[in-house]
Amino acid sequence: MKTNLLPLAKEGLSYFIYSLASVVLFLFLDFDLLAFFTSLITLFIAYSFRNPERELKLFEPTSFLSPVDGIIQSIEELQSDKYAYKIVIQSSLSDVSVLRSPANASVSKVLKKNGTRVSVNSKLFRSLNENTEISFITQEKNIFKLIHRLGKSFAPLVIELYEGQKLVQTARYGLMLNGQTSIYLPQNFRVNINVGSEVKASESLIGYFS
């Protein structure tokens, strides 16, 4: 995702401009009630696509930060040769939607799947919803994987990554407005977070590679 220092994520600019233009039009036509409701929608769009700067706290070079804003829904130990832990973060419409790199790493695979946008509470959520699977490898050869799965949303899941791309920790790479993120981590990872904790992308520590 190209560096964007605007207070609004570029994916939301078209929504914001069209909504603001509607407010101006309704005011010009003296449709005050419609102008009022459209103003509320415009404020909602600006809030949903806000793009705040985040202060990078001083952690060890092997630190792993949250890639999204949300709540830790579960931490699961896996019986797998490749990944030992699965951490699920639930993001809502009130969370900042910008996705950020959790570590200094290179992208090894990007697999996007189109789908529906049913509620996260639906039994069909995991099998049918739009999602993107991204695999990474760090300079120390630590591997991890992220799966961003979109929930009910008026905006699509945006991932601006390609295989071989190198990311620095905290770099913006996409946007997900309401959804669920699954993090798969290897055996040599030390989890430093609890279920129910509120996390923020680029600021909250998930753990360390040992």
Write the layout of secondary structure elements.
Layout: H1 13-28, H2 32-48, E1 63-65, E2 70-77, E3 85-91, E4 98-100, E5 105-113, H3 125-128, E6 131-138, E7 143-150, E8 158-159, E9 166-167, E10 172-175, E11 179-185, E12 189-191, E13 198-199, E14 205-209
Antiparallel strand pairs: 1-14, 2-3, 2-13, 3-11, 4-10, 5-6, 5-9, 6-7, 7-11, 8-10, 12-14
Helix pairs in contact: 1-2
Order of helices and strands: HHEEEEEHEEEEEEEEE
The largest pleated sheet is described as: 8 strands, antiparallel
Cα Rg: 18 Å
How large is the share of residues in beta strands?
A: 25-35%
What shape does the CA trace take? elongated
Total helical segments = 3
Mean pLDDT over the residues: 92
Q: Specify the structural class.
A: alpha+beta
Terminus-to-terminus distance: 29 Å
- State the low-pLDDT regions, or none: none
Q: Count the E strands.
A: 14
- What is the quaternary state of this protein? single chain
Strand order of the largest sheet: 9-5-6-7-11-3-2-13
Proportion of residues in helical segments = 10-25%
